[in-house]
Amino acid sequence: MAESNEQLRAVGLICSLKPSPAESSSALIVDHVFETLRAQGVQCEAVRCVDYNIAPGVEADMGDSDQWPQIRQKVLDADILLLSTPTWVGHASSVAQRVLERLDAELSNKDDQGRPAMAGKVAIVAVVGNEDGAHKITADLFQSLNDVGFTIPSQGSTYWNGPAMGSTDYKDLDEVPEGTASTNATVARNAAHLARALRHAEYPPYE
C-alpha cells in the first residue's frame, strides 16, 4: 500500500516504433510497472509517442502542427516519468532520442528559486528487445534525464532481453521471468518512495 494518502501522478512515455493499436513490448512493460505504481497509490497514464506529431527540434514548442506541447504538459503535471524504449541496432529507438531532444528545452525552464522545473520529478527507465544493449541504453537515457533535472532512484531501471540472435519479443512471453517481474515492481516502489520524499523535501534554491 502507499505510504500516505497523497496522490502522485506518473506518465509513461512509450517510445515504440509501432503506432496504436499495434501490440508493443514497450507498452506492455509500462503496464507491468504501472501495476505496482497503482498499488502504491499512484495515478498512471501511458502515452505512445509515435501516435503524436513530435517535431524535430530542441524548443518546448516548435509551432505549426507540433504536438509535443501536449506531451510536455503531461510530464510537467507528473511526479514520475517512465521512459520505455525498444532496442534497435543496439540503441534506443529514434522516438526515444527525439523525446530526449525535446526535453532538452527544459534546461532553461526554472522555478522562481532557480531550480530546474524537473528537479522535483523522478525518472525511471524500461528497455525491451531481443538483442543486447539494455545497459548502454539505460546509461544514455539516465544521463540525459539527469542533465535535464530529473532525479534517478536506486535501482531505477528494468529491462528484458531475449536470447541472442532470437526473434521472441517481451509481448510474446507466456510468463514474465521472475527476475524481470521482481525488478519491475522494485523500480515502481522505489520511484513512488522517492517522489514522495521529493514532494516533502525540495532541493535547495539555486544561487
TrEMBL record:
Transmembrane segments: none
Domain spans labelled NADPH-dependent FMN reductase-like: 11-156
Taxonomic superkingdom: Bacteria
GO terms for MF: oxidoreductase activity
Any Pfam family the entry gives: FMN_red
Designated name of the protein: Flavodoxin
